[in-house]
Amino acid sequence: MQHSELKNLKIAVVGAGYGGAAAAKALSLLGAEVDVYEQANQIREVGAGIGLRPVTMNRFRQWGIFDAIAKVTSPSEYFEILTATGDPIMKEAWPVDGEQTHTHLVHRGDFIEALLGVLPEGMVHLGHKLESIQDNGDRSVLTFAGGKTVEADLVVGADGIKSVVRRELFSDKGPVFSGEHAYRAVISVDDAHGMVTDDNLRMYIGKGTKIYLLPLRHRGQVSFDITALCPDGAWNPEVTKDDILATVEGFDERLVSITRGLDMDTVNIRAVYDIDPVDTWHSDSVVLVGDAAHSMLHHQGQGANSAIEDAGALADALRDADSLKEALARYQAIRKPETDKLQAISRQGWSEEEIDDVFPGQKPADAAPKE
């Protein structure tokens, strides 16, 4: 689209999470008028750490915000997968993207704070809970709780796994329970029983349980994540420490000791959900990004990375296409095949025999485990 067309484009982003904040940054750099509407009165990310892949960090470099993100991260060289008792299964360098060779490990709260911090003041409007959206073809109207309405040439639905935009316009199918719980806490490196001495991610797997140790050494902390089979699909289930300890029985005694020492008031407990692939992500004036479009299980660690890449691909399409309609179709054509694959892979199991399948392209099928 011509610069003059982009400059006159009024864009409303629904949701100020990773996808929404990244989309706001990328689209505002095109010269468009961008406003972000977030239902929370205060943005606060809880939970664990995540890894920002090289392709994601290169997007930040492209947008001129690499340093702002990198300064709250620890660069990591590789990830390792081990049995419950610590025997190696595989060890792989993170996939590179150009000259960017490190994946950057970051606390979710630091990440969203840094992302929002690079947006112009006044762009994000808190306390705006979306109630409905009316798609009028070339423009759409958002109605928020309290009656406020906003009209925009383009609405970007970045409102997460329970997306109102998706439900109203694209799919009325709700989130799908995975049969798992995630128990997440951020602990001091000193409480990690000597298991964290570098900046590399390790996963221990056994008997339906995965334990992730993700160093946040720039904070002097570790993100400790247990994902375990459980039939209770309540969104915020009630779980005791004994329940959690039962999921790590038979694991390395140091991991059991970390679990035993958790302060339950600091543990984020969630049933794990994703969504089935959504056939269509866009109309002529509305488009989905991030979890609203393709929420996936966290086993691949690709939720945030996919949302950032959505934002970049959407901005690229708007810049390169001749019209808004063409841009949205191009964006979906580029991103949906990738996220469909990631959603499917993330639903696969994590037995030792299935590791080759869940890390396609990173470990040749005939390669022996590396030590």
From TrEMBL:
<dbReference type="InterPro" id="IPR036188">
    <property type="entry name" value="FAD/NAD-bd_sf"/>
</dbReference>
<feature type="region of interest" description="Disordered">
    <location>
        <begin position="342"/>
        <end position="371"/>
    </location>
</feature>
<keyword id="KW-0274">FAD</keyword>
<dbReference type="InterPro" id="IPR050493">
    <property type="entry name" value="FAD-dep_Monooxygenase_BioMet"/>
</dbReference>
<dbReference type="Pfam" id="PF01494">
    <property type="entry name" value="FAD_binding_3"/>
</dbReference>
<protein>
    <submittedName>
        <fullName>FAD-dependent oxidoreductase</fullName>
    </submittedName>
</protein>
<dbReference type="InterPro" id="IPR002938">
    <property type="entry name" value="FAD-bd"/>
</dbReference>
<keyword id="KW-0503">Monooxygenase</keyword>
<keyword id="KW-0285">Flavoprotein</keyword>
<keyword id="KW-0560">Oxidoreductase</keyword>
<feature type="domain" description="FAD-binding">
    <location>
        <begin position="10"/>
        <end position="338"/>
    </location>
</feature>
